[in-house]
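Input record (one chain):
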Amino acid sequence: MNIGVLDDNPAILAFLSTTLKLDGHTVTTHSSGLAILEAIFPPTASPQQAQPYDLVVLDLLLPGTMTGADVFFAIRKEFASWQLPVIIITAVSGPTLEQFRYILPDDVPLLRKPFAPRALRHLISELTTK
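The corresponding structure, as predicted from the sequence alone:
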């Protein structure tokens, strides 16, 4: 699969990229919400020409004005969950995580950092074999 990964931490991007590439996936990493959205929705392409990833893994909290939740909702405006599955990863816990759980759909898979590669593989398998 062609997988887009968004995280502001270079070490996490490297971990995810290595893990996914070892599983045979093509991985493109992004460190900002704007960068991944421009890859999914190229400014010069029409919606019919857009070639989205097969799957997106995105961090919930990002520095700047665009959170991972903002990226998620921008993707969902154009693509249903079966068209472009999204896995959200996060290091937040407690009340902050509960707040995000209220605004995100119940069917969005969420992995808490740190997580084992097998947990990510399991979610990818669940999302792509339906």
